[in-house]
Amino acid sequence: MSFTTILFIVFVVIVSLQLIYYLIYLFSFSLQRSETKLKKHIPLSVIICAKNEEENLKRNLPYILEQDYSNFEIVLVNDSSSDDTLEVMERFEANNKNVKIVDVKSNEAFWGNKKYALTLGIKASSNDFLVFTDADCKPNSNNWLAQISSKFSNQKAIVLGYGAYAKKKYSILNALIRFETIITALQYFSYAKLGLPYMGVGRNMAYRKELFFNNNGFNGHMSIKSGDDDLFINEVANANNTDICFSKESFTISEPKKTFKDWILQKRRHVSTASFYKTKHKILLGLFYASQLLFWVFAITLIVLGYKMQWVLAIIALRFMIQLLCFGLTAKKLDDANLIFFAPFLELFLVSTQLSIFIANLISTPKHWK
């Protein structure tokens, strides 16, 4: 058996693995319709942890205060900011009875650790149902809180939402960020629907305070600077206590990073937490990402070698057809359908970037959340 034949056989196995992932795992969310049953407004505490976010708070807090929801408070956590974040918070508190402030001073034992500040904010909250977002996020509608809270029930103590990024024209970086965000949401929504929830995003998620303290909060990973959202969810979420919310009214919208350097640093922090996931999640996610990388490596190699071109191109076409169908349905559901045409190119760019991030994190790990 020749070397090129072996490459071709391995390529077929890799593509088969990809198709299994898409057909068994990822299509579970792509084909799902959004359903929301609005209920009586349960008391909510919206928790926003901010570090040097004075401008974002001025811009986005009014959208949260204007929510069409009868019973909620906003807990603003100032995480040792060096700008005028605290002063901005105090102005909002003075003008709104449902705003309270938690001013976190520098603590040598927890310096640079968002989890410490968040824990103090959770302790200060008045309600059992907590909704989390960031200072640079704004709700996509005045029904954001109503949509998210509708997913809580006697059994469901965790709600995973979608945190989109604002669209910028003529920006490759912006398209890449949005593409990666959709792929990530496709995965964590799909796995949650299949009873294997493994992460959420702090830009838009909710859980009960009782769940937080019954599981000792962030204590199991307090020493890890990142992961206040995904590591906690990975630790406590299961098939029975987790639901997803992805109606357009339930989205939050964030301003994306403006430079590749800032985005790479952000992704390095996020990727550094994946090694602390449960083993089953690491295996499933690791196989998927590895198969993505190997697909491109073997596809390009076989095309360059000119080996069985008709078969190779047919297999590549089949894989892209399934991928684009799955991604297209998801992108349309998440209100970003104009990325569909560029998906193959963005995937190649993203896979290459993820490989460089993985190598960089082997050398050194980011130390602080900001």
Automatic annotation (TrEMBL):
The EC number of this protein is 2.4.-.-
The record's listing under Pfam families reads: Glycos_transf_2
User: What broad class of enzyme is this?
Assistant: transferase
Entry GO MF terms: glycosyltransferase activity
Keyword entries, A-Z: Glycosyltransferase, Membrane, Transferase, Transmembrane, Transmembrane helix
InterPro entries reported in the protein's UniProt record: Glyco_trans_2-like, Nucleotide-diphossugar_trans
Q: Where is the Glycosyltransferase 2-like domain?
A: 45-210
Instruction: State if DNA-binding is listed as a keyword.
Output: no
Any transmembrane segments, and where?
6-31, 283-305, 311-331, 338-363
Which SUPFAM superfamilies would you find in this protein's record?
Nucleotide-diphospho-sugar transferases
Spell out the family assignment given in the record's similarity comment: Belongs to the glycosyltransferase 2 family.
Which PANTHER family does the entry link to? POLY-BETA-1,6-N-ACETYL-D-GLUCOSAMINE SYNTHASE
The protein's name is: Glycosyltransferase
